[in-house]
């Protein structure tokens, strides 16, 4: 049975921060051609403002070096690759949300590393040298890109120090934070700095301790960062890691909880909260990322997260990513919105659709959002189901009555899921090739496009009436905008001579 | 009720000349950027070998000139534009099928013209100067493009001399032919020359007279050319010209009749027959060209025409065309496979699909053709109905049994018609805009893509079983090729962890 | 002997309107690919703001049409091509400076035409229909491109009505002006309209009469337009038209004279003066346009014209131009800054160099201009000589003392003339081919580049010392800007290990 | 004083293998966008056939992996990156000359590595697994690229096993060779395999032992490979490594010596000899690579090396290279023909010029080569001097008398050195910036172009007379080909109206 909804003529602002930031594999990957191809695709359709990833100070970007000459050791800062990476970002209309980390070889105090690409996670041999690295790097960026530009780049201190990404103690992280934040502010007091970049382990303890530390030490703190993943524990199985998902509102609850903790500290209560990583699964080997389920599931999160967070950076925009080794196939469970070979995954469209949402929120429930921009409706619907029962869930059905914005309007609908914009299914039908031939690629890219249809709407008693069915694991967007019918200007136009055209 | 068909394992050669040649608006238009954009699109997907149009010797290409100096008149041949046009063709992998005409200003004997662009159709003031123009032009082309290349370019003498395109008599045309053919052969005896390029008026009289003339005069004649349009008479109405269509087999019958006439003359019987123009309607202001009906209708012709004709050149590849004035809107009833703004019309896909047909013909009826290339089936279906009864015709339904070419295969289906690859309908829903905004263009280009779906086929008792329904005014292509299932190489792969993927 | 010049540290504003506007062949040519290629080249290097040419209302653009239906005649305005042309301009960062003309076939009162492409120059059959054509066209442009954009497009009424471009009387032109200006202002009073677009024949009479007419009738008049060509009478000779040139100051004198006439009318005295066409020769078949002489000669004009005129629109940016028939060869004496096949002529660089001139004028004489922008000197020098004496003129030699803008600076010099950026000479060495092979094109494009050299300048007593020699028919630009010497940051750098590098 | 040379009308074949192969940084770098940009540049101008570099089996390409599941270990071969790299090569018209190495992490027997990027150089833990890796990889390549293609890719076993690139003994290398060669031949006996890929240390011992081993064991050996560098010992100094050069004939002598050793073994004497690496300096931190000296110096080698070697692969085509860490500046002494930011170094042109040399050798001395192709002369001259004396060496001066190939010819000269095509000098004048602004890049790219001039030659007594001066550290190419003078076809052409054009 359909839900009947009378959409009101006006609403309240839609807090939509979907395009604020997106995640990326380590920054050194931005030298790769395929990475850049994917970035272009994402920016053409979605236009994120910021990009955040690890590895700014890792040795593949290669900034911190030391050189011996005549018996003396000189520090040397090599910005060849950093400049190329930043050029690439800015040329593609995206700015860095800088994450300070990990530890350069020459500054490390131990050999603990994370990932296939071996990011060193030990505290610095000298906090002064670490601070100097930050200052020199930011000043170099200012010299190259201009002060007014660089002060708009937020700076986050380290990544997930509450788990294995930091080989020191919590107190050592706070020391790292203090040195880092001071170094940032020394470059320009307008630069925004924040932390603690934790994932969801001992959240309350870390947040409270961090807040209290900053307040006590009067350390600069312009925004709070944390990560949210909604998956349950993992099961390793050969080349895959599997796990089940919590409900998408799990993430909304985490955001509320974070805001709650923040609200206890007047200095903290109203500053920005950036979710610098989020996704369903937190491993790049889990098939969920490649599914149409994920698109519908993430859409539910996108419909509400902006109420609590100033950004929520999907981890990550591309499958050009090496944390768990070189990708082994076109579809391999990677985080990306785009798979190897530039194929858009279903979740890509969750971001594209929300990037087009209107500024005004007229209606929202668990499966539907109705927004408006000037004289255009943008409606997004989704219906996720994890299929653990091996059964399609029922359609979500709606009959919408929308205040008319003109005598005639066109409704353009884009659908994702099932037989469309679901390239992993087509890839499976192709036999699951690891690399693609030209023909396979053409089939997959066509299969990755949403199903677009359109229809004419006519005002009836001041409204448009729209029926909508959202099948299991589908995501859709409806754009409705007025059209000016020019048929009268076609001299001699006779409907019946158009072979069935309406 | 479905037609059940047991497709045999082998058949006979499919006589498919669909990519041999395509028509174009007058050659001077090849200087335009939009023309070139359309040519690129057509060549990417269809790769025609030859292109034929009017206007080689018209004054906008500007070859024949005279210059006065010191009281004397010198002929001057200006190849600036011709070279640019030919460069464009060759860069896009297409060769000219040269049509000699119309008459340059300086060689005309009267003022009769055709078209908005005023092609002069009068006999030459001097047949010797006309012949000289041909010789000089071909020799110039040989100098620029090489003799071995240019001798592969067929030459047709004039256009439709049996109607208003020729202000002289039939005998005068024969004289023009003799001078022209001799001029061509003088350049290189290997160059192929033909005529009489007539349309379907007094066909028998013209063909017989022409054949007898050439035989009697021993005039060179390497191939026969004529035109075929299947429309009934026209009704003018404002900016449109309407008419109804004959059955597509009307054209097949015309081809048979032409072959019959040819067969009476031993010297003629077995030479090539080129249909240097064909289409449903013969006016560039008739909506039929823009419809899904036309795609299905032309497909019927393409399925059989190769049995009788060595080529059938669709008139024309692009709506960049000015015979009836500058196009007035995106869709205006133009001949093109591609409309203004680079939007592919339904009929574009009739040519694309047949360009992919296999070399072996396994089955053919009035709505379906089954072909094969090595280990790949290419099946094309169509179902045309002119909608004069305002009712959808019934689906054409098939159950095909195809000899298996591997344990597993993928079936990729592309559908044209109705809600897909039918951009004129979407354009109508948009209010029929004459020029397009960027957003309108994006919607239309997406709407112009065929609906692609895919499925896995499994061998059952040596066969694949395929059910196919072709709705009213739809055209479809099914490609079936074996796949190698690599699922076993995915260590730890568990079907149930893929959220419903099969 | 060298001229020694102590350049002062500051000067006065350089009135430089070089990039305000450029001329074009008739607007219908903007559909051509090669035209667009040339426009891109010009805009990449020079970035003109406006483009002005004939033919807005000519029948190849095809705006004004009439259609008969059911015994009635309907006017029809076809904007298909106009929109494509304007899209092209705006996509390339250039706006139209609209010229209203010539007369559409359906509105003409006679058969007088100009040019190979037959622009009809007769008065309208109805001044009301003419005004309606203007209003409908401008309103269409506003609908498509936005009101705020279109009101920045100036509108000039007709072209050179004082000679054969207008088949009516002067008074009839004034009537045309009044109707046109009123139609423009009816669309939006902010739109700027002007005239009388005369060439240098009976200048004083036309200007005075026109001013007095507008004042008397209170006709809108936002700016004055006229044309300036500096050539003497023509000699026709086969495919060429030859003539000699006046001194470049001839044009400066014409500008002063025009300002003088304007100054007699208080309402007119201080409005804008746009030279909507200028060049040396006024025929597109005169070799002077292709020479290095012309670059140096035009540079002299560009160095001073801004003192008197708000714009001076070089006629024209490209040899894609058909007033005197289709171009007959790569170099044929056309007006363009760029020849067929996208080869930059020497004069191209006169515009490029002046487009880079500084906002501050420090020094100017007959062969040199020294300008400054912030911390950068831009110096342009030229030395023209018409070679009628078959002898090279002596070099112009300078020793400049420039106030230093840093301890070290780089001087980058670009030279045009003689063996460099003089492709007509190379083309002559190639045997004067009419169309080019790929290799010939590559040689010519390389030969069309200026000779670039660079040198280090060091401050000496607060100045840089620069010696400059400008040979006969050379043009050069020197850019001087400070450099930060980073040599010290190269650890272990030893000058003597660099094989002669300084 | 000039050398007078009467060039004969015919000569002998010029053994020119300059385009056979070029070196590259490790294969994993081929994923980078800048690497691909440089490859495109090189292929546009030079079109090498093969490319050879290290790192096929290194862990950044990531082929060899092992995976645990259910207590068992499975080998896994990941070809994701390899396929992308090979696609890139083939798309750019270049094939791999495969080098088998270095050792994957999972197959290593120790921790010895080379380079900043840590290539492991220890023998395999199992020679069978190593052979399996080869076989699986080559079979995969055949599956993807086709057998007929892949059998044209030569295979070299390891790199410089005679120094620190091999942690085993000579005998262990021979064992590696035997296993490898057998694995290659097992894939397809037509595949060509060779070694020992040594550098110039204990050459004679290694070659003889290797030849004797292969003969004795009847191991497949299709070609011999070695490396040649002409530098003396190194001096480390901060970020640079300096050394002086031997005369370029040093390399020619090494080639002769190698051929001499080969000639002692009948089975070996006449097989191919590939110099799979050569250059002046063998370190990527030596300024010589960036100089005009190097262009002239390498040209001397290129003029003769083909007499003795079937290929000589310049090490390397691009400064995208990381053996000695990430490049620290635009010019940093890297091996590449192209520096960071796509700036062509002088030596680029040595390869471009020799790639255009004619098939017929008419004259050769220490500074000049005269070749001919059909009706075109290609003359290359060079004059190297190491500037250790701080003085320019004298010009090499020639007066050439060349048998005429037509009444008129054009001479097109391209010069490299000094003020032209010497971008490191301009970069030094710019203050030696490490990263470039857009303006700096434009200046440098223009400064990197050769100086092109042209002149007309006229036959005099059957010859053309050409004077040529080659200044110190210059390289030049002269192309002479006949032109057809079309001046007569220009009606009304008057030389004196062309403002000094000849």
UniProtKB/TrEMBL annotation, chains A, B, C, D:
Residues 9-463 form the Glycosyl hydrolases family 39 N-terminal catalytic domain. It holds the Pfam family Glyco_hydro_39. It comes from the Bacteria. Keywords: Glycosidase, Hydrolase. InterPro entries: GH (IPR017853), GH39_cat (IPR049166), Glyco_hydro_39 (IPR000514), Glycosyl_Hydrolase_39 (IPR051923). SUPFAM superfamilies: (Trans)glycosidases (SSF51445), Glycosyl hydrolase domain (SSF51011). Belongs to the glycosyl hydrolase 39 family. This is Beta-xylosidase. The lineage of its organism: Bacteria, Bacillati, Bacillota, Clostridia, Eubacteriales. The gene is xynB2_1.
